[in-house]
Amino acid sequence: MLRNIGFHHSEGNALIMPEAEKLQRLHRFAVATASVTVLLLMAGALVTSNDAADSVPDWPLAYGRVIPPLVGGIRYEFAHRVFAATVTILTVILAVWLARRGAKTARKLGWTALLLVTAQALLGALRVLEGHPAVTATMHATLAQIFFVTVVSLALLTSAWWQNASESLDDRGSPRLRPLAAITAAAIFVQLILGAGFRHGAFGILPHLIGFVVVTVLIIWTCRSVRKRFGQVRDLRRPGILLQAFLGTQVLLGIAAYWAVVQAMHSVQPSLSYVIVTVAHVLVGALTLASSVVLTLSCYRLIRPNAPVALRSAMESTRAGGTRPESSRA
Amino acid sequence: MKTKFFNLALAAVLAIAIAGCGGKQNNETNEKPVAETNAKKVVDTSTVGSVSGTVTLDGKPVPAKPINMSAEPYCQKEHPSPVVPPEVVVDDKGDLANVVVYVKEGLSDYSFDTPKDPVVLNQKGCMYDPHIVALMTGQTFEVKNDDQTTHNIHPMPKDNRDWNKSQPPGATPIDETFGRAENAIPVKCNVHPWMKSYIFVFKNPYYAITPKDGKFELKDLPPGTYTIEAWHEKYGTSDQTVTIGAKESKPLNFTFKTAAASGD
User: Fold this and answer.
1) Of A164, A188, A210, which residue constitutes the final position of a domain?
2) Is a pLDDT exceeding 80 seen at residue B29?
3) Cβ of residue B30 closer than 8 Å to a chain A Cβ
4) φ, ψ at B243 (rounded to 5°)
5) Which of A33, A57, A101, B247 is most buried, taking the most CB atoms under 10 A from its CB?
6) Complex confidence, ipTM
7) Which residues of A touch B2 (CB under 8 A)?
8) What b/e readout covers B161-172, taking b as 16+ CB neighbours within 10 angstroms?
């Protein structure tokens, strides 16, 4: 399903230089959009951690104005709206750009990103106007993750590496790495929903703790499989290492965040340590999901579904033309 | 197949978007006092009595951390010395303020008129004044802003309608009502997260909020047996049963214990 979702080439895999340069610009723009989305996620997390979600009761205006009085919690909520507007504009540009230059799947993903960011803005409005944070804020946080991995996927799909890579590796292990990585990414996504639900009062901590155990096992299993089967393939090894690094960081942040939440129960206002730890926990959670999605897409791009060719010969053939095991992404 | 799946996914996202467009549901029905179906008694003022007493705290409370108002220069300027949150206000004798004492049970046979005067919650120096308010169903709840900064007033009831309104400096007071009896509705200002208050909504007029001396009096109670409850935001609730005869005044004291005093 994930095969051949790159861009139209004029002749085979070889890109004509000006065209490659245009695609490189598009890729950079997609990376920039994903980066600003990280800032948007941070701004959103700051709103929740500073208990400022309801500081501006109206939408789309703020206190009936374009720029509200920038005091107290309004600063966080307004900054979140500014970042949201910026990301929306970037996504419009990206979608239009992809519509002109992208292949079918990239085009569709571009429009999907635009639809997602629009839905997300409306969900944000629903959160402001209707309240009910347990439902609306959890949905808003969930859609934020879906949008983020969509733009991260677009950044990957627009890369020169993605254009030049091909299915050239055979996975002889069990379970196959492709579905294992996909299941891990899905489990991380569910775990982020459970975390958001806990943060916004939809669930208790228990589902999130169970999710932590499941996700930890799956990430270790996936990364161990990558290391054992494709340890020499840098394009798989790297996202695997990144995923493990994020997992370790996230475990520490999770413990710290729980401690901060317990402390906050006795505080009259959010402390700086509570804000820092909880925002970092949300961000690293999103980055864990993103790295898992990158690993999954890379697996689907590089590993053949069920080809009966040995790994060694596949590696040799990739050295000859396709993916270079020690190559880096452009 | 792929196209079909893609279209389905798009339709799902669109559905979320449409849901987001949904207008604000005006749950006004919650605002109206619940209709009483059976005819109820009116209090005979010639037989009424009272319950009075003091609420005290056993043990020494943990000193609260001062509020950090640095997020809002105006608020900080209004308080040259540090402000401690008014959650546990207790004097040297242990008299406890900000305790709501009310009749929990025993008045279901009676009906009461709604007072015409509003109950006022003021925002002054980026603090709520008073810290806790109590009123009757249908009574006007008036919110004022004496500050030269913007506030939002956000009560978060479970049984009444949730609302959140902004109030810039100099704005006219906000008038609202609560249609259903409900205890301890949290009120927050999300602009200034240290601003917290509670609203109590009763169907009867027999409630009191203890001042600094911890004293309370529930006047004009008709003869009967009542469960009287005392509520404090940190120490929870405590109740006692008391029987009042015609024109009788009964003493009733409540004592809350700190965690150290109760051995927890």
Assistant:
1) A164
2) no
3) no
4) -110, 130
5) A33
6) 0.78
7) 1
8) bbbbebbbeeee
